[in-house]
């Protein structure tokens, strides 16, 4: 296509036992506010990274050889996905704890501090996507304006569905771009692959918007389901009942519940509770701990029973809502 933007892939690699050299490499390619501290045997520190920069994406395979702790300041400019190829990575981001392994990726939004416990047994794919690129793609895919930063799920499945396909695409792209004579080394072809990585991520990661709020549950969603989803997103704090949502959709309660389970993967009320919990989580991560209170934010999002709310919040994010507010950075 004549108007296709062209980005020339840049391939860089490093293998070193020097911690400072590894820090400098990661700060240059990923984020300046980044700290790397070995917590295992420092004599086993053996950093290796093979990374390709391609316009708005940076894709690499990274390992450290020994247990380390990584601390990253507010991302601000990018979304990030970590996909362990071996081992288990433990992450903490805005009050949410995620264990990532070869079956599940960790996803980070461009807001808040990140702490990673990265064992020497863990080698992973690191995928950085510029904030504007992913937001433009999701906005275009859904044909509606999205709120920045995107309210994304903290992880996604790598065994079945779109997550498996997306990771296979990323691995193939990285393998192709490492070589000098592959098809992807051609700038225009590389640009097409780059766009596939960005658009594929937009359709893979969980988000609360219109057509695909549960991460591509199906290519078609009935109008009855969409009516209920639109109503919930328009007024998530409203005290909906199953009967009211069914009336909005124009079907019976049982029909709507069956349609939601088939096309969204959960019941309407479960979806509404998750939508509210994600809204509370996003607000707590932005709030000032000195002036905001968990109860006020919870009430604002329609939770009237604070005990049940706290239990549901902890089940979804792994920490209490007060911890999310207190740990805001």
TrEMBL record:
One of its GO terms (molecular function) is DNA-binding transcription factor activity. Residues 226-327 form the HTH araC/xylS-type domain. Keywords: DNA-binding, Transcription, Transcription regulation. InterPro entries: AraC-bd_2 (IPR035418), AraC_XylS_family_regulators (IPR050204), Homeodomain-like_sf (IPR009057), HTH_AraC (IPR018060), HTH_AraC-typ_CS (IPR018062). Pfam families: AraC_binding_2, HTH_18. The keyword Transmembrane helix does not apply. The keyword Protease does not apply. This is Transcriptional regulator. It comes from Actinoplanes cyaneus.
